[in-house]
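Let us practice reading a record.
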Amino acid sequence: MVSALLVRRGEVDGRVADVLVDGGRVTAVGPDLCPTGWPETWDARGGAVLPGLHDHHLHLLAMAAAAGSLDLSAPADGVEAAVRRAVAAVEAGAWLRAVGHHAAGERLDRRRLDEWAGAVPVRVQDASGALWILNSAALAAVAAAGTEVGADAAESGWVLREDTALAQAWPAPPLDLAAVGQALTARGVTGVTDATPFADPSGPELLAAAVADGRLPQRVVVTGQPSLSHAAGLTRGPAKIVIGDHHLPALGDLAGLVASSHAAGRPVAVHCVTVEALALLLAAWADVGAWPGDRVEHGAVVPVAAIDALADLGVTVVTQPGFVAERGDRYRAEVDVGEQPDLWRCATLLAGGVRVAAGTDAPYGPADPWRAMAAAVDRCTPSGAVLGDDERLTPERALGLFLGPADDPGGPARRVEPGAPADLCVLDRPRIEALADLSAVRVMATFVAGIAVPA
């Protein structure tokens, strides 16, 4: 494969320049670079040449699984009709897997799914990714496989945060990681941090195989639980710690996990959605100390009083402003008015000295980083209302949320300059025009290590 490349007539840092690539790295940036006999030349036609985007928080295997599942996020004729229609098409002996349901809205449970699906095993994942809703046939199959879900879960069909156990009890969904890689490429994404709390190497091994054979052309960083000893040849990132939204750990237990991760030489990336979880996490860091590279994953609710503490600790908040664009109207209807300004903060964190980066949380959030950028700028909900006017960023700063290094999210934005990896996102127009219209349709080409990646 060719890694010697000349990108001609691109816009780099506001000036028209050529970008010379050799051995997977940028070797020169300047006007009229015309080496003779160069293997490959690509004309940017005046479009901006940016570092490839890095999505700092998503879930690759879940993205692949979701692509082959029934989407219940917004069925045109309602959840019941969508489930009944899908059940009718299920082959004998197969399961129906559905995703994207909002459990706090139309409440699904075992009995309703039984009414709609009969003897077909059905599992429905809540939009948060933390909850599965099973019908009686699915619960029976899970029990037959030797997995215990508890009396309350068996009654309601609601099983919270038991993915590892459940995965042993039901058929694995088809995983088209090539389609995931192509979708990321089309949006100019050249690197990702998979924030799945893998407990063993099997998940990372699937990802490593997809990277090795080119199905995933992106550079992949994995987190995984503190017990994950290696990343199957991938880059190992911080240790993932999950603070349950409904069942908080004891302070000593959380502090112990943070301390043990640090002792093993790993910073931590802590799933933290509620104000109670954030208070507990801040107390744990106050107890054992924060390390460079420690991260708050999500930071969905950050009270003003917590901003100084986050800044003093030097930790990074990896947030998902795309949720404002997807669920903003739901927040406005369901979250107390006094707490709505605390949702998905961006600008006030930065103003308070907190490092901020962004991910999409795909497939649990909208998978398009450009949509997340636009939401960080306009803070518009689906109906056009504004949620968190004080949190608006400039387009340039919103773009920067996805330009931080993989190992330093929230740090200085990567640049197209000699010595840098030739991971490039080429837009169809100059930077200032693209910033006025933050959209993935602007992406004209994506290169990883100087190699053009087809979308």
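A brief commentary: The longest strand covers residues 5-12.
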